[in-house]
Amino acid sequence: MSISAQPVHHHRNTTKVDHKQFKSRHATKSALKDAAKGKVEREERGKRRTPHQQVMSKLVRRNQAKQSRIHHKIKKEQETDIFKGAEGAPKHVAVVPLSKEVDVRRAINEMNAGVDIEPSMQEEGIVRTRIERYGRNVLFMPATMNMLNALDVCKLADFVLFVLAAAEDLHTEAENLLRVIEGQGVTNALFVVQNAKETVPDNKLSKRLAELKIQTGHYFPDPDKLVVLDNKNDCALLMRKICTQSTKGIRWRDARSWMLIENTQWSVPKASTETANVILSGLTRGKSLNPDRLVHVPGWGEYQVAKITQIPLKPLKRKADEMTMDQDRKGTLPSTEQDDLTELAPEQAMTNTIASSIDHTEQKGVLLDDHHYFSDDNSHIPQQPKKLPPGTSKYQSAWYLDDVSDSEDEAMDEDMPIDDANEDAASEQPEDGAVAREDAMTDIPATEYPDTEMHVDQDEAEEARQLAEFRASRKKEAEEDLEFPDEIELHPDVLARERLAKYRGLKSLRTSEWNTEADAPYEPADYKRLLQVPDYKKSYSAVMKESLAGGIPAGSRVEIELQNVSTSLQSTTPSSLFSLLKHEHKQAVINLNVSLSSSLTAPIKSKEEIIVQIGHRRLAINPIFSAGGVTPNDVHKFDRFLHPGRTAVATFVGPLTWGSVPCLVFRKSEQGDLEMIGTATTLPPSSSRIVTKRVILTGNPFKIHKKLVTIRYMFFNREDVEWFKALPLWTKRGRQGFIKEALGTHGYFKATFDGAGKTFEES
């Protein structure tokens, strides 16, 4: 009988509900941060990050181009607005002759004749011309072939017109003049030719003009067509270009307000004083003129402004009522924030805490990277592991005060164990010190020489004779500096540790740290009072933004009253005035990147007087030269000479000049004239720039035995050898070495080098 199973009905569980996971489309910052767990996603390669790298649509590009056109149009209109109208500012044209056969006054009259203007009868001074055809005023400033006169005239010019003689090539004086004007900075340069019909046949004129264009192209590439002044049509086109063409300007000049002085008026000085106020009138150019800033008058100096009076431009026709001109005068007085004439920071009544420098009488040797490597106090030096006989226990090793005798068989060293107690100390030794490597040269025993060899001091007379022969082949000082830079030779009677007491040892001139506190006793008295500019770019940007705010706008006719001007200057007449930017009167450590001309025959020695023109200033300085470049420790090697064709940094204390300004370097010739010897550019002022004088002591290898060399003529007594024992040695072929031990009393010593060879050059 089979039993049939009854089917069982199961109900589905209705209480079990699987909830869907919440999927948030906008997670919070904290949730994303927790999910990242500190990981940073790598940016997509080739992703455009800056706004200029983004792909813009066609509409955006069109809008950007339109805004750029509008911006340049407004900028050009602002530059040309001061020249518009009958009362507009005149365009300054400097006329510079490049030959003694050139007549500058005649050249000006020939150009005026091209626009139907009557010739001027003036024999001296500037020539003013109103050209109604183009609605412009032109001011011709004739110059001479004198270098300083040409520089002063071209400094104020919008166009520089060089006048050539048709039958003459450029001679040396003309080439020097072009080179100097180019180095100062020039705006639009034009070349004209005089006396072409009188000296050159018509069939050879085109060829002659091509030759002159090639000669002038060396100084001003791609010059315009040479204009023949004998041709009236060419003169008319030249005047049209001067009146309508935009001026390029000179960046360092247009960054500040400047003015061509038209009139000078002295006030009546008091009987008890030697100074008076002076009123200089003219038309301002460049940036706006701020009465709070100092002004520089070339040839006079720098002064404070007492008052600036803005006067209306003088009309061509006299008004019926002249009283209205006096009513329109506007006087501007300086504010309480006016710059003063103080060059140095005020002295503060506080005690200068100068770090205590190491007394040289207490030193046991020269400092290497501001550390003592050989001193009686060896508590800070890890203990050297001892070489002990086989089987020596830790207790027995305490009875050995030093390594076992080196006179024993050297094969025994291989079996000697290292003291276990000193293993930790050995592992803590520096990696770059005298014991940096296992095969360091100081590990070579002093008995590497044969035991039977003994050093014997030579006779003093023989020693002096050999020394005289060794030094007989030296050249002159400048030639030695070029061939043997920074190398010196000590006199046998001079102690090296006293002669070089101020010097310190450095492993690397570029990377070794320099302790500036030790130099405090040798600083000049006013060194701390010089202007400090920690962040040059930020300070320069702030000064330039301040120069654009307020003041009297450019193109205004003004009368500037200067105060406390010496009455001894009444016999002179200034030609220009430049407004100084903020802090430009203060003294700072100035650095110039000087490039000396390769045509010079003699080098320039450090601290030799030279004349530099930095923008609108001319200074007589005695700079020190040093190597250029950027180093991690800001230490730069002092150069005793700046040789022709080389570049160095000239450092001196002088007034600050903001921006990168071209400089000219001059030197007085034997005849008393100035000759240009090089060019320079200004670098950011820095009083933290360390100029260090490097000294190299040279020695002569006396005996050579594999890696061990006996050297002489570097020192002349045993104490000096011990004093400078920490300094490394090097050869001109790149071998490195160290002083091992002194020999005798005449300055001989043993040295080990990292390479073996039969011949060693000077150490």
UniProtKB/TrEMBL annotation:
Main localization (coarse): nucleus
Gene that encodes the chain: TSR1
Protein name (database record): Ribosome biogenesis protein tsr1
Biased composition (Basic and acidic residues): 31-46, 319-331
Segments for region (Disordered): 1-54, 319-339, 372-394
Domain Bms1-type G: 89-248
Gene source species: Lithohypha guttulata
SMART domains: AARP2CN, DUF663
Cell compartment(s), UniProt: Nucleus, Nucleolus
GO-annotated molecular function: GTP binding; GTPase activity; U3 snoRNA binding
Swiss-Prot/TrEMBL GO biological process terms: endonucleolytic cleavage of tricistronic rRNA transcript (SSU-rRNA, 5.8S rRNA, LSU-rRNA); maturation of SSU-rRNA from tricistronic rRNA transcript (SSU-rRNA, 5.8S rRNA, LSU-rRNA)
Pfam family for this entry, one: Tsr1_G-like
Keywords: Nucleus, Ribosome biogenesis
One GO cellular component term noted in the UniProt record for this chain: preribosome, small subunit precursor
Family assignment from sequence similarity: Belongs to the TRAFAC class translation factor GTPase superfamily. Bms1-like GTPase family. TSR1 subfamily.
InterPro entries xrefs: AARP2CN, Bms1/Tsr1, BMS1_TSR1_C, G_Bms1/Tsr1_dom
